[in-house]
Amino acid sequence: MTTVNATATESLLNSFGASDKTKSAAENQQDRFLKLLVTQMRNQDPLNPMENAEVTTQIAQISTVNGIDKLNATLKSMETSFLGAQTLQAGSLVGRGVLGDGDSILLEQGNGTAAFVLDGPATGVQINFFDSKGALVHTETLDAARAGTTVIGWDGKTDTGTQLADGKYTFEVTALRDGKRTEVDTLGFGRVQGVVLDAQGLLLDTHGLGVLALGQVKQILQ
């Protein structure tokens, strides 16, 4: 039967160095394990000593724990780097217009932009615009619209030709396919005012759409 002695294990312990405050929790745990192993071997039954396989297995187990700790530290570092890059990217959006789920449209210098999404082509589309009190101020129609996203513009004028003041308005879209209403999703417009970092992650504070997660942005405009 092949055995190992405490002297050899003490040499292994010295190679790791003594536990101190500068080491990670896993490294300190490893030192404590090896000290315990040395103590165990010093006091082992000489008639029934530990085998190489037993020691190797125990050392392999603590090495696995240490490896997992290092892997977690690496992933944490990567997460921090990714968040930093994402923050810089989000910062570049400040002042830009974005489209996201919603029904808001901002008039800026007399013009507004929004969009709608169809799962198939439409043979007729009607777009109604409303003021802050919910009153209908303008209606536009399209003879047809393709499947996918269609960006729409509004010059801020009412049906009577009156130019409305800049600000937030809302819109709704009705789409027809062969005379029957079909499903349509609206994308509102927001102007990015700032970037917010909280427990939910990285968020965009917009005028028009409120607070949005980056994943909720469907399109970036000027």
Give, in order, the helices and strands.
HHHEEEEEEEEEEEE
Q: Write down the overall geometry.
A: elongated
The overall pLDDT, averaged over residues, is 81
- Name the beta content range: 35-45%
Q: Kindly name the structural category.
A: alpha+beta
Largest sheet: 7 strands, antiparallel
Q: DSSP helix count?
A: 3
Number of strands: 12
Tell me the name of the CATH class of the largest domain: Mainly Beta
What Rg do the Cα atoms give? 33 Å
What is the CATH architecture annotation of the largest domain? Sandwich
Query: What is the count of structural domains?
Result: 2
Q: Stretches where pLDDT falls below 50 for ≥5 residues?
A: none
The CATH topology of the largest domain corresponds to Immunoglobulin-like
Q: Measure the end-to-end span.
A: 77 Å
Please characterize this protein's 3D structure.
It is a single chain. The model has no long low-confidence stretch (mean pLDDT 81). The chain folds into two domains: 6-91, no CATH class; 97-221, Immunoglobulin-like, CATH 2.60.40.4070. Strands 1, 3, 6, 9, 10, 11 and 12 form a seven-stranded antiparallel β-sheet that branches. It is built from three helices and twelve strands; from the N terminus they run H-H-H-E-E-E-E-E-E-E-E-E-E-E-E. It is elongated. The termini are far apart. Helix content is 31%, strand content 37%. It has 222 residues and is α+β, with helices and mostly antiparallel strands. The chain has helices spanning 6-16, 25-42, 52-91; strands spanning 97-101, 104-107, 112-118, 124-130, 136-142, 148-154, 167-177, 180-182, 184-198, 201-207, 210-213, 217-221.
